[in-house]
Amino acid sequence: MTLVQDVSQQLFISVPFLSKNNALEYYEPVQNFSVKFANFPPRLIEYPDVFGQGIDDVLISRIEFFPFNLFATAVFVCAVVHILFSTKFLKLGAKLRSDQEFTIKIGKTVPSGAILRADFALMLGKVEVIFGIWAIVLGMGIVVFADWATLVDYIEHKVNFTEPVFVTVVMVISLSRPILKIVQTEMERLVDSFGGSTVTWWFFILTILPILGSFVTPVVSISLASYLLAKKLYSLEPSRKLAYGSMSLLFVNISAGASLSHFALPSVQMVAVPWDWDLSFMIANFGWKAVVAILINNLIFVFIYRKDFEDLSPSSYFIKKQLNRPQKQINSLWNDRETEIPLWITMAHVLFLIWTLLNAHYPKLLIGGLLFFLGFIQLTKKFQYQIEMKAPICVGFFLAGALFHGSFQTWWIEPILHSLAEMPLLLGVAALSAFIDNASITYASTLLPGFYDGLKYAVVAGAISGGGLTVLAHSANIVGHSKLNEFFKEGISQWKVFSHAILPTFIVVLCFMLLQ
After folding, report:
1. pLDDT (tens digit, 9 = 90+) per residue, 255-304?
2. 133 with 376: CB under 8 angstroms?
3. How confident is the model at residue 329 (pLDDT cuts 50, 70, 90)?
4. Nearest to 516 by CA among 419, 408, 423
5. CA-to-CA distance for 63 and 71, rounded, in angstroms?
6. Are 54 and 85 a contacting pair, CB within 8 Å?
7. CA dihedral 191, 194, 195, 197 (to 10 degrees)
8. Within 13 Å and on the Cβ side, how many CA atoms surround 280?
9. How far apart are CA 443 and CA 261, in angstroms?
10. Residue 324 φ/ψ, nearest 5 degrees
């Protein structure tokens, strides 16, 4: 019971609860809030735009109408820049730690202030906490500009944090031993029939699991894909080029592969109901093109990295594995054991996962299911892995922070979308997705009058195409980032992820543009 209470408390602190509907839905404010800040930030229909205004005039008038827009967007830009340069802080923290270890070796005492500076630098380099750090700045700005009650109303009623809750819960369940064993066993049967080589594993992981995301959500598919890539590729210490290329391709394929359905991608969920898009529509207009793009990308990357695959040496990892620190060695041996899992335990985990997927929009049911799941883990711990809550909670915290900032960005996204024609819109949305969650972009498009079918196709195709450019582009990317980060000694460079993702993103864009 203590474990359940502890986990529950952590979730309540780090991942706020939200409502069922989309991330930018507004509600009537609670009574006794001042009229001046009843709608904070203003709804798009409240801005005094004049028909025929240029985009510059629209943005300037909106800043004059609500000056806090400029501050909120400046804070968001600072957070994005911080994420892009996060490895600088990691390197600084590592250097400070190294200096401290040298000081200890020569028999001197390390001041407590120096230890704190190193820890602070390392914290600033963790991508998962950066949006949360800047959310504090934004929250303080709201209190100064308005008041404390306005901040409370904004958090409670005007931002939808259901997705962070869902991602946190589904990560815990999908990374449990029975679920991972099911996927690994079935993949082994398939891969072994094609020779069982590392490149075969790589190809099928980056083909099948992204497409599976259309039906079990991208978060589940990228969790499983990251686990298998870590075991079958990254543990073999691939070249930096292959390591970054595989991660970037995973991000791109996860975004594209989840476009066969209307309920998997948040960017598609935002428009599915307003535009009456269903499963058959998504398969006919997006899904099959995405599958073609995934196959082309994987074949191209196999050719580009053929020498890197040949240089992989399975023996090096297994030798180094025995030289790990004692605690890590114990944990590794425990997780690698081959104890048979009873069928009833596996089926119970499958039911927990189904419950989570079916109730993805209901935070209280999600948390209830998680608490029962953790209790079940304790009862059957002989057959389980050690449950790691840190990574799921950090991922949920990242997404919650991103949503906290993102709700203030529609004031400039909406007029930009409104000013573009079809092809510029597709390319513009793909590029914009590198810096802001693409669900916010597609949501803004549902608010535009006269948005005809060609523009609807362009904005969603752009959002799907750009979903792998950075960790910011798609909510599932932070899951893969969190699971694979340990294989990058100096942290994951967002610039390198971006540069390696340009080619596969371009291929997806071409498929959506040419395969009509």
Report:
1. 999 999 998 998 998 899 899 999 999 999 999 999 999 999 999 999 99
2. no
3. very low
4. 423
5. 10
6. no
7. -50
8. 0
9. 17
10. -65, 165
